[in-house]
Amino acid sequence: MTNIVIVAGGPNPDLNQLFDLDAKENYYIGVDRGAWLLKKAGLPLDYAVGDFDSISEDELKQIRQYAKEFEQFPPEKDDTDLELALLKVLSMTEIGSVTIFGGIGNGKGRIDHLIANFYLVYQERFRNLIEKIHFLEEKTSICFYLPGDHLIDPLFQRPYVSVVGLTPLDKLTLKGVKYELDHIRTNHPCAYISNEFLVDQDFILSFEKGIVGVIQTIDK
């Protein structure tokens, strides 16, 4: 399995975690300005993609020379730069996780970009990636789940955890958290926010219909 690391063009992505990874076990994609951030940090850049309208000509030249594979698209196009990166992932085989840095803004950036990235899971073409996609920043994590039983591990020290129904849900159950739910049915998207993990208890999320996003975040 190859794990995918995508660095998007959002402001101030937290790349510190990438220095501890084994480059041989990961495939690095730089999306637009994210390609420059990987290059500047001295991290691998297997594939650079985007319209590159947010960087200088000199930076673009350096990216072309640094990336193992490079594709530039016109600014006027049907897919966002991040969607182009995910289409590349779909063309690959034996994919493990798909971790995206710089995709949710880290508290800054454009809200429309955040919403567009969050809505990627609604696209049928990306359905096989839904449970692999993980948006990760210094203080925020977003993962997505399809129906079933899921063990949710805390990724930060004492994070808040919110369960967001992106569709109507059937038999939504939360066990092992401060505010539990038991076989709840919703007729519209809804958000159960600011829940908390319990010490020495496993958080089990289960549901039978729909798509759920789990957001972990810390205030400090």
TrEMBL record:
Transmembrane segments: none
Coiled coil: none
Ranges for domain Thiamin pyrophosphokinase thiamin-binding: 148-211
N-terminal signal peptide: none
Enzyme class: transferase
EC number(s) recorded for this UniProt protein: 2.7.6.2
Pfam families per record: TPK_B1_binding, TPK_catalytic
GO BP annotations, alphabetical order: thiamine diphosphate biosynthetic process; thiamine metabolic process
Keywords noted in UniProt: ATP-binding, Kinase, Nucleotide-binding, Transferase
A Gene Ontology molecular function term of the record: ATP binding
Gene3D superfamilies registered for this protein in UniProt: Thiamin pyrophosphokinase, catalytic domain
Protein's name in the database: Thiamine diphosphokinase
